[in-house]
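Session log. Operator J.P. requested a structure for one protein chain; no other inputs attached. Running the standard single-chain path with C-alpha cell output.
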Amino acid sequence: MRLHAMMTGACLAALMLTGAPAAAQSLEDGFRNPPKEARPRFRWWWPGGAVNDAELEREIGVIDAAGFGGAEIQALAPNFATLTPDEKARVNDYAEPAFFGHVRAAAKAAAARGLTLDYTLGSAWPSGGGFAIPPEKAFVELTMARTQVTGGTGAPVKLVMPTRTKRLGALSMFDARVKDPRVADWPARMDAQARIVAVVAMRGTAPQLKTDTSTMMGVELSPWKDVIASGALDTASAVVLTDKLRTDGTLDWQAPAGTWQVFVFKQYASNMGVLGSAGQGPQLILDHMDPAAFAAHAARVGDPLGTKPIGIRSTFVDSLELMQDLPWGRQFLTEFRKRRGYDLTHYLPLTLQPGWMQAWSEHFSPPYFEAGDATAERVRADYRRTVSDLMFDGFIKPYVAWNHAHGLQAKFQAHGGAIDIVRGYGIVDIPETEDLVHEGDPYFMRFARSGADLYGHWIVSAESLVWKDRPYDVTPDELRRRADLIFAGGVNSMILHGHDYRLTDGAWPGWHAFQPSPFALGFSTMFTESNPIWAGVPTLARYLGRMQSVLQQGQPVVPLAYFYGQTGYYVGIEDGGAGKQAAEKAFIAGGYDFDRINPDAIADARVERRQLVARGGARYPALVLPPIAGIRAETAEAIARFAKAGLPVIFTDRTPDRDEGLADAIRRDRRVKTAIAATLKAGGRVLPLGGIVPALRTARVPANLTFTAGDVADVVYVQRRVGDRTVTFVHNLADSPRDAGMVLPGARGVSRWNAMDGSIAPVAVEPGGAGVRIALPLAGGESALLVADPATGPRDVIPRVAVERIALPASGWTFGAAGHSGRQPFSSTIDAITLGDWRSIDGLSSFSGTGTYRRRMQVEPGWLSGGKPRIILDLGVVHDMATVSVNGRALQPVITAPFRVDITDAVRAGSNDLAIAIANTPQNAMIDPKLAGYKMLKPVPAGLVGPVTVEIRR
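Structure written below.
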C-alpha cells in the first residue's frame, strides 16, 4: 500500500467528506419527519462470515422499517452461540472473498432503501489478526524489573529480570487457528521479539506499593501495583549498564557506596490478541506505531471493498484499548531522541505511573519514582507525547488517509488510548465517543464534540445504550433517559449497541453477541425482534431521529475553550485521582458550555473580534486554563498573542511556570514565563475556580443561559444556533425533580418541541435581563428541547389542567399472555386479574413477552364537549412499556415515564373497549439456576402496576 500517495490530497478529500448537511428541509419539517441520514443507526453484530445474503437483506429491511438510517457492521466470533455445522465452518471466512461478497450484498440492499452502512476495519478489537500480522508486525510493550542494591560491598549484583505479563495469550492453545502448519514457527518468532532495551542504575529509594494487583475476570491487566509513596531517584547519578549484563542475570558492575535502584527494561511482544475475533490465522494485535503494519492490515480487511463502495459511508475503528505494561515501539528510543532532543534511556525509570492509560482500568496512582524536582514530570510528559505522536504517525493518520483514498469517511473512537484525545477525535471525519464510560458521562463525551468543533466536523457519533452486566433487563425508559444524557454530552448521532444477526438456531431469544457466559454477565442491549420490547423500538427510533435532525443543524454555541494538555484521558487525570470534574460542572452550572482545546488546535487558532477562532471555524469568546505547572513554550506564546488581540484569558488558581518538557529546559522555561507575563499584562487573570463564572459575567462574555434556581448541579445542556434561532436541549441527570428555570439571552418567543410525538407548543415567557425568563421544572430524568426565535414574540399560554380524575378498578381485568417462560414458549389467559407485579402472580414470575389487559371503559358525553377537552389515560407504574388500544385502534407505544396516553381521538361517548398491552424485557425468562452466567441474573419488576386513571383536561 502506497501510504505516501494516500496522504497526498488528504486535506482536499477531508473537505469533500466533512461538509455541513444540506438543509433541504426546514427545521420543523426535519423534526416532524427526520430524513434517513438523520436517523440513529445500529451496531450490527455478525457472527464472523457465517451469514447469508437473504438474511442480511431481510434484516436491512427490518432496520429500515424500524426507523433506523443504517448500521455499522461488526463481525466477530459468536462465542457460546449454537451454530449449525455450516455456520461453524464459515465463521472464520471473515476477510475472505465470500465475506466481502456478503458485505457488498448488505450494502447494496441498504443503498436501495436510502440507508448507508459503516464497516468496522477489522474483526472485533483492537485492530489486527490474520496472516497479515505476523509476530514482526505485532504490537510490543516495555516491561521493567527492579533490584535494590547496597553499594560499596563489592558483592556481585544478581538482578531480577523482567518477565512477560501473562494476560489472555496472544497465541492461545485453546485457539485451533494457531495449530495451522503455516504458523508453526510463530511462537518462536514471538519470543524473538523480546530484547533487553536498557539496564539503568540510580541512587535512590524504593517506592511503597500496595499489595493488590490489577485484574479483571481473572485476567492480569498490568504487573504494576498502585503506589502509596513514590520512590526518590537521583537522576545525576544515573548510569547505563546495558552492556554489563551477563546472560545469567548477573551485572558486571560494582555499585558505589549508597542505596541503588537497578532497573532492567525489556521489550516483549504483548501477550494479548484481538478479542473475540473471527478470521483465518492467529489473531495478533498490530503494532500501532508501525505504518507498515497498518498497511498490511488494511490490505487484508479493507482493500477488497474497492474504491467508493456502494452503500458504505465509512470504516470504523473502536476504542484502542491496547494492553501493554508500558506503551512502546520497536524504534521508540530512536524516535524519542529525534522528536524530543535527548536520550530517554537514562530516564526510563521515571516513565512508570500505574493506571495511566491502562486498558480496562485507567485510574490515578502516584508514579513509581520522582526525582526531587520537576524532572520526572517533564520526562513523563515527553514520553507520553512521543507515544501519542508515534500512534498518530503509525496508525491514525494512515487510517484516515486510507479511507480518503478509497472514497470513505473515517469514524474513530479516540478514547481508551495513550494519545492526544482531542486531536484523535478531530483528525478523523466522524469522531465517536461512547456511554459505557462511567455509565454515561456528559463531560467526558464533550471531548468528542470538542474534536468535531475544533477541527470542523458536524457529526458527533456515540456507541450508545450500553450497560455492563445487564444483557437482558434494560428498559425502554432507561434507554430514553440514557439517550438524553448522551445528547446532553454533545452527541448528535447514535449507534445503538446493538442488533444481532439471526442465526439458524431457533431457540428463543436467539444469539446475542454479549449474552452471559461462564466468565461474565455480558452487556446490553439486545435490539432484536425476539426481544419483547422491540415493539417500542420504532417509537424510540423516531424520538432519536427527531432529536438528531435538530441537533445536526446549525452550529454549536460553546462560549469557553477549556485547555487540555494531557495525553490520554480518564476521570481523575487532572485532579490527582479525585475525579470531581469540578471545573466542568461549575462552568455548566454557571451557564457556560465548554470545549476542551488542545495544543494542536491552539497552534492553528486565531483571534477575530475578541473571539478565539479554531481551524474548523468554531468561535470561543474566552479561554480558560486549569491549574497546571507545565505548558509547551509554543502554546504559552500563542496564548499571549491571543490575549494581546483581546481574547479574555483566565488561569485557574495559578499560572504555568515552566515548559512541560526536559530538553533545553532553561531556555524554554524562560519563554513560558515571558509569555505568561505578557498574557497577564494584556489582561489575563488568575482566579480561583469559584471566581471564574462571575468574572466571565462581569466581562460580558456571552453565556448560553442563566439558571434562576440554586441547585442545578445535575442539569446539563447543549445549545445550537440555527439561523437566527437558538436551540437549547436541557436534561436532568438526577432521579429526583430539579428546577431548571432559566433566562435565555436574546430570545423573545420560545417553543418546546416534543420529540416523542413531534408536537411543538409555545412556552410561557416573561422579560428577564437581556432575554426571556422561562419556568422549567424537570422530573427525574426529564428533558426539554427548547427553540428560541427572536422573530416571534411572547405568546399567552394557558396550560390545560385536569378537571376530573376517574380511577379505573385495579381488579377485574381480563388478561392474556403470550411469550416465553424459562426460555420456552408460553401462553396463558386469566379471566380476572388484579394489577400488580407479574413476579407475584402464579405462572408469570418467569414470564417475558406481552401481557394484554382488557376491560370496558365508560366515557361520559360531557367529557367530550366544551373547550376542546383532552382525555388522558395515565397508566401509573409500568414495567416496561405499553401499547394502548381503544376500540381496536392501536395508539403509539408509550416507552417512557410518565406513562400517559392521549386517547381523545380514539374514544366515543358510552362504552369503549380498552386494551393495554404490556411488554417486559427478556430478563425474567432468561434466569436459569443450572446454567453458568444465567444463574447470576436476578428477577426484575414486570407488568402493569398502575393505578390506571382517566384524566379530563381542559
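Operator note: The first helix runs from residue 3 to 7.
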